[in-house]
Amino acid sequence: MAPHGRDAALAADILGKAGVPSRICANLDDLTGAITEGAGAALLTEEGLARRDVLPLQRWVAAQPSWSDFPFILLAAPRFGASRGAQGLAWLDGLGNAVLLERPLGAAVLSSAVRAALRARGRQYQARTLLAEYERTAAQIAALNASLEERVAARTAELRAEARERERAEAMLIQAQKMEVLGQLAGGVAHDVNNVLQAVLGGARMIVRRPDDPAAVTRLAGMVVDAALRGAGVARRLLALARRGKLQVEPVDAHHMFAGLQEVLAHTLGGAVTVHVEAGSDLPPVLADRGQLETVLVNLAVNARDAIAPQAGAVTFSAVAEEVASGEPHPSGLAPGSYLRLAVADDGPGMDAGTLARATEPFFTTKPRGKGTGLGLSMARGFAEQSGGAMHIDSALERGTIVTLWLPQAGKAVEPPTAPPAASVVAAPGRTQRRCVLLVDDEPQVRTVLAAGIAERGHVVIQAVDAAAALARLDAGEPVDLLITDLAMPGQDGLTLIRAARTRHPGLAALLITGHVGDATSMLLDQAASDGPFGLVHKPVMPDELADRADAMMSAA
Fold first, then answer.
1. Model's pTM, two decimal places?
2. Which residues form the Histidine kinase domain (predicted)?
3. Is residue 195 in some structural domain?
């Protein structure tokens, strides 16, 4: 914009020869419109702005986007600042990106300045493109983030659904496994119990048919007793398997125990099997039920003998002390503490992976029918875990088998009991003092047999079918010296009956008979023992044994 003379045409001609297209604007409005349409730079003369209102142009400059800094080239007379003063310089600053060229100037300077301004404007357009691309990318990222959250939420829901489905499938699998084990357990128990019942029922019926043949009655009665004891053995193994059997723990010297087992098993296992013991005399004692521990070790030795047979081989008992440190998980899941590691190893053919995986299943056995119950290893594991330890089997074909038991060491402060508790003292038969015993059991046959055994000692036995009947006899004023009751009965159980009876007769001596005692009744047993003379007898119990316990308790009372 150069409104005076031929300046505009001359400048356009110079720029045209330099290859720069241009447009001549007649006034400021025309110039502002051309800039708005997309001009790359503006060339204007000082006199074109004189007496002109530049406010619209300054407003446009101020309203530029962040990427834009439009270039202006102002052709001014010499000493522009001196002629216009501070007001003129402020006006020039209002244009922003403005370059002042004093006239006269050559064509080369003019075209060079215009090209520089256009290049600067081109870079601004590149910045605009990059900024737009950045904004598009940012928008895409925001959209992706939004959709990502949606996808994550959807996938999380899918995973939760899959987890629920997996848990349901696992629960169904566990239930199926439980039913399979329960079926094996029920089948094995039914088999062993039916054998016991066969011998008991058959022997009892033969006794009924031969009352006049004392020799036959004695022989058959012995057979019935043996069968019943075998049934009691099955019950004990099942309780050990379920970890519900009652343990009488005491410090046990493994060195002396192994020495005794070696002497016994040397004859029991046969001449083809050699028994070795690797246990030092300085081993710490182990805290366990001696009888059950010896039973477990004998069963393991017999299993080893059966695996070796008919070949010759060796069974080795070993024992070493072992410390399980905290923070170091034990492969058998042992808690931190001091243990004695007992092992029974054989050099037999070993087990394949499938047999090893099922070795501790109840009633699983590889022995011929009738040669094994399949409870030995499961009972050993139950005994070890109930004792506060663990069991592990290591076996492979052609490598033999090692069964390892970890049992807790006995502390130095633990001493073997010097005498049994008063309730366990066994008195000799043949009492002369007549006493009254209240016997409560809901099974008529059991109650009749036990009552007969107690009555043989000269005592008066009052029988009751349940707790209500027993309390009625006490309320009637019966002079009872001892209450004997079964634990599991319809209505009130035996412990509830003992508490109710002692509200009528404080400190009444009581003897509880039970098949097993679980954790739920241990606290109640402690309370029963603290409220008066109290004893506990586990089924099956022989009539003479119950009578001995009854005599001992009444004598102590």
1. 0.39
2. 188-411
3. no
